[in-house]
């Protein structure tokens, strides 16, 4: 599902049938989950990795706002509902094996729950991970 969705445009939404067809192509693991990488659509920066179940995939595609599955809470959560740090869907892609999703998004505010712009703000250092 490749979208031509310029910055500032409304979030990309798909029909229920299209969303279900996309979800049918996903190879969910034995827990019914698939990793989803959130990437800023205009810069290519990887912002975070989270998990989605089938319902979260369909909700994201039909609603245009990225929805994940919380493994700790065992519940769906729509990014930004409590923080205001919304992820609008620009494009959804599936890898060659069907077992990983790439969500090209338009991020509002920081993506990381720590308040960092990206969850990948630490790099390998001589004494272990260090902030970039």
From TrEMBL:
<feature type="binding site">
    <location>
        <position position="99"/>
    </location>
    <ligand>
        <name>Mg(2+)</name>
    </ligand>
</feature>
<feature type="domain" description="Phosphoribosyl-AMP cyclohydrolase">
    <location>
        <begin position="48"/>
        <end position="121"/>
    </location>
</feature>
<keyword id="KW-0862">Zinc</keyword>
<keyword id="KW-0460">Magnesium</keyword>
<dbReference type="InterPro" id="IPR002496">
    <property type="entry name" value="PRib_AMP_CycHydrolase_dom"/>
</dbReference>
<keyword id="KW-0028">Amino-acid biosynthesis</keyword>
<keyword id="KW-0963">Cytoplasm</keyword>
<feature type="binding site">
    <location>
        <position position="97"/>
    </location>
    <ligand>
        <name>Mg(2+)</name>
    </ligand>
</feature>
<comment type="similarity">
    <text>Belongs to the PRA-CH family.</text>
</comment>
<protein>
    <recommendedName>
        <fullName>Phosphoribosyl-AMP cyclohydrolase</fullName>
        <ecNumber>3.5.4.19</ecNumber>
    </recommendedName>
</protein>
<comment type="pathway">
    <text>Amino-acid biosynthesis; L-histidine biosynthesis; L-histidine from 5-phospho-alpha-D-ribose 1-diphosphate: step 3/9.</text>
</comment>
<dbReference type="InterPro" id="IPR026660">
    <property type="entry name" value="PRA-CH"/>
</dbReference>
<feature type="binding site">
    <location>
        <position position="119"/>
    </location>
    <ligand>
        <name>Zn(2+)</name>
    </ligand>
</feature>
<keyword id="KW-0479">Metal-binding</keyword>
<feature type="binding site">
    <location>
        <position position="95"/>
    </location>
    <ligand>
        <name>Mg(2+)</name>
    </ligand>
</feature>
<comment type="function">
    <text>Catalyzes the hydrolysis of the adenine ring of phosphoribosyl-AMP.</text>
</comment>
<dbReference type="Pfam" id="PF01502">
    <property type="entry name" value="PRA-CH"/>
</dbReference>
<dbReference type="InterPro" id="IPR038019">
    <property type="entry name" value="PRib_AMP_CycHydrolase_sf"/>
</dbReference>
<keyword id="KW-0378">Hydrolase</keyword>
<feature type="binding site">
    <location>
        <position position="112"/>
    </location>
    <ligand>
        <name>Zn(2+)</name>
    </ligand>
</feature>
<feature type="binding site">
    <location>
        <position position="96"/>
    </location>
    <ligand>
        <name>Zn(2+)</name>
    </ligand>
</feature>
<comment type="subunit">
    <text>Homodimer.</text>
</comment>
<keyword id="KW-0368">Histidine biosynthesis</keyword>
């Amino acid at each position: 599902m490749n979208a031509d969705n310029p910055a500032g445009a409304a979030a990309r939404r798909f029909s229920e049938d299209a969303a279900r067809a996309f979800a049918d192509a996903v190879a969910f693991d034995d827990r019914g989950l698939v990793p989803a990488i959130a990437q800023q659509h205009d810069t290519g920066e990887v912002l975070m990795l989270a998990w989605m179940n089938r319902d979260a995939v369909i909700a994201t595609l039909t609603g245009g706002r990225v929805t994940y599955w919380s493994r700790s809470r065992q519940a769906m959560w729509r990014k930004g509902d409590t923080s205001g740090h919304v992820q609008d869907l620009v494009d959804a892609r599936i890898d060659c094996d069907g077992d990983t999703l790439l969500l090209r998004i338009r991020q509002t505010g920081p993506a990381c729950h720590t308040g960092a712009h990206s969850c990948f703000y630490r790099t390998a250092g001589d004494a272990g991970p260090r902030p970039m």
